[in-house]
Amino acid sequence: MKLAFYDDFKLGVVKGDVIHDVSAVVKDIPHVGPGDLMSGLIARFGDYRGKLEAAATGSGTPLASVRIRPPLPKPGNIVCMAVNYMENGTLPKKPQINAFHKAATAVIGHGDTMVLPDEPATIFEGEAEVALVIGKRASNVPASEAMDYVFGYTNFIDGSARGLPSTGFFAMKSRATFAPIGPYLVTADEIADPQNLPIKLTVNGETKQDFNTNDMAHNIARCIEWVSSVHTLEPGDILATGTNHRGLSSFMDGDVVELETQGLGKLRFNVRDDLKRTWLRETRQDRKEKNEEGPTPQVSGKYAKPE
Question: Is the pTM of this model over 0.85?
């Protein structure tokens, strides 16, 4: 099942190119907003699935005529795995498992805009990722049982403002609008093998990242095992599984970014920079092949360094 919020955060079930309003089915779930409505539904999904399927009938509304909202507008936790890909087998050994938190207030949805802040970042990037969504409370979960705790999956972008004077992941990762997700939340039963999903990210129609989840250093089950050993995960929490860094490139004003993962739909969002800064369009791999060190250089605008 594909779940989505749309327009004024009505809950819908997506089938093909239409969406069915199922908000009446879940009105009895205690909530004060769409965030805890979705987490409440996830925690009680077994009681509601049949009702949702029964309500998602008829002609529905064309997706093209509605505004899609983030399917998880206010998750309790966003945990992002760090350096969790073997970079197409180019790393000599598995990196140490690691993760960081990203602010829930960074979430935006399909069709929204990532806004680059007035900060002296060396580059702004967005990492294409598959995120899993937790279905039930998870604490000290063994890897052998971990997949039973996955409710579903969604596309996820981990926005980054790299090279800031304030070092650390907080200033780099938790900026407003730096966590585009969606367009919808796909239940786990629709994804036959989450460890074999092609992922593609384009910027203005040009492919930048093109990789597969089979390149993960630590698979989804191991990620859940490790993260849940550090802190408890609750229904509706997001665990983003990392990216292949070779295709990372600059995000700039006016960019249209699209992330598509097999089975998860296509997430599209815009980029705005009121300072109109520009960078070269090279990827990290492009620079490596030319034996060039450091991030892709900024070529114009505020904070650009003179040659």
Answer: yes
